[in-house]
UniProtKB/TrEMBL annotation:
<protein>
    <submittedName>
        <fullName>Phenylacetate-coenzyme A ligase</fullName>
        <ecNumber>6.2.1.30</ecNumber>
    </submittedName>
</protein>
<dbReference type="GO" id="GO:0047475">
    <property type="term" value="F:phenylacetate-CoA ligase activity"/>
</dbReference>
<feature type="domain" description="AMP-dependent synthetase/ligase">
    <location>
        <begin position="87"/>
        <end position="296"/>
    </location>
</feature>
<dbReference type="InterPro" id="IPR000873">
    <property type="entry name" value="AMP-dep_synth/lig_dom"/>
</dbReference>
<dbReference type="InterPro" id="IPR042099">
    <property type="entry name" value="ANL_N_sf"/>
</dbReference>
<dbReference type="Pfam" id="PF00501">
    <property type="entry name" value="AMP-binding"/>
</dbReference>
<keyword id="KW-0436">Ligase</keyword>
Length: 429
């Protein structure tokens, strides 16, 4: 079987010299070797790891089970000890990202990236995007493109390397304006958050635009609901891919090789474990748990067993493409997703699959205040009535006897401004 673009990336990143692609077992052995090396590097150069990893026999780490005995780190460590996690001089840092968590007023997380880290991300984007777009084609990216080391600029550099073109649209403020730019730039690929691309698709259908003009979509940055994937496939008539990543891991984390394939992990740069969030023990492939990540090749600010707070699972079977890289189920969510409602929990993931299938609904936002569910709906007037009925039929809403108030927003703006991760608000806007 011919190697995929992602396998070509893996072989080069591993420095694999064989005439065939490595097996999954060979990838695991290589990962353990790199993890042993990064542990030694971190203990020798980071005050934080010098404390937390002292006394462990690194050479005894040969299996995933061995590695899982190391202590885990948390987002709190990134807030409290960012400089202590550094393993190089700050003169060697090319970009520092400060992350403020929603709803908190404490210290932000600070993540340091070297130029090698940024180059590794460009390299992954380069090979991953070749699945979706070819030389001479244009991608419209719904993110800023002017920030040095930002995702828009890294993606633009990656596309340029194989002859494609990147047009950064910036943060979406007007779905119809983005549609106009797609047409003006002759873009065949759209990259952006699911909610924003769905808003563009709403206007595409409303204005009677033809299928086939947009040939591929990459959903990234936030959750990618199945309902949105189906909307985009139907309205654009295109292939829809999904990506998962984090600022902490250098943005790129996992991407689909074909629509619906499951997201192949960026195995050379991100070692991923799924653990029971209560016990910290590894769970079998196929079981849902907390995603824990390590960065084997990073030397500036390596992460070793970082608890992401995301819930997900590794798909148990091998992909039909034959790649040795494991696959992450696209249905990744926050462990803390949702708000308590009576004895149940109202989850954004469930709201996404309930509301996005509604005809004429472009976008939505939800807030829960006391016993009332406030819903801002972007789209047609009829979609607002349908949203009310769909919400009323949800067991968690009906059992709690929640009142539902719909606010219609019929312009082209998204329901929530900016690029922040969507969540259920705990107060009316």
């Amino acid at each position: 079987m011919a190697q995929s673009h992602l396998d070509h990336w893996l072989v080069r990143r591993m420095g694999w010299s064989g005439s065939r692609r490595p097996s999954s077992g060979e990838v695991r052995c290589w990962q353990m070797e790199q993890l042993r090396a990064v542990i030694e590097h971190a203990r020798a150069n980071s005050p934080f790891y010098g404390r937390t990893l002292a006394g462990f026999d690194v050479e005894a780490i040969r299996t995933a089970e061995d590695f899982s005995r190391l202590p885990m780190m948390t987002a709190g460590d990134l807030r409290e000890y960012p400089e202590q996690l550094l393993c190089v001089s700050q003169d060697d840092i090319a970009r520092v990202v400060t992350l403020h968590s929603s709803g908190t007023t404490g210290k932000p997380k600070r993540v340091f990236h070297t130029q090698d880290d940024l180059e590794a991300t460009i390299n992954f984007f380069d090979w991953g995007m070749r699945i979706m777009i070819g030389p001479g084609q244009t991608a419209l990216v719904l993110m800023p493109g002017e920030r040095t080391g930002g995702v828009g600029m890294l993606l633009a550099e990656a596309l340029t390397r194989f002859g494609a073109r990147c047009v950064p649209h910036g943060i979406l403020e007007d779905g119809k304006a983005a549609l106009d730019q797609i047409m003006a730039e002759n873009a065949s690929c759209i990259v952006g958050p699911a909610a924003h691309v769905n808003l563009i698709a709403y206007w595409w259908e409303r204005l009677g635009m033809p299928k086939g003009r947009v040939q591929s979509v990459l959903l990234c940055w936030d959750a990618a609901p199945e309902a949105v994937v189906r909307n985009l496939e139907r309205i654009f008539g295109c292939r829809v891919f999904r990506h998962w990543g984090m600022i902490e891991t250098g943005l790129g984390g996992a991407v689909e090789c074909e629509p619906g394939s499951g997201m192949h992990l960026r195995e050379a740069d991100v070692y991923l474990e799924i653990v029971d969030p209560d016990t910290g023990k590894l769970v079998p492939d196929g079981d849902v748990g907390e995603i824990v990540v390590s960065t084997p090749l990073r030397r500036g600010m390596p992460l070793i067993r970082y608890r992401t707070g995301d819930s997900g699972r590794i798909l148990p079977d091998q992909c039909v493409c034959g790649s040795p890289m494991r696959r992450l189920d696209p249905h990744v969510s926050r462990i803390s997703d949702g708000v308590p409602v009576g004895s149940n929990r109202l989850r954004l993931a469930d709201l996404n699959e309930t509301l996005y299938p509604i005809s004429g609904l472009a976008d939505f936002a939800v807030a829960l205040s006391k016993d009332t569910l406030f819903v801002r709906v972007c789209g047609s007037a009829e979609s607002g009535r349908r949203a009310h009925d769909a919400l009323a039929s949800m067991p968690v809403v009906a059992e709690a006897n929640l009142a539902i108030e719909i606010e219609m927003n019929n312009d082209a703006a998204p329901a929530v401004p900016g690029l922040g991760k969507r969540q259920i608000l705990d107060t009316e806007w």
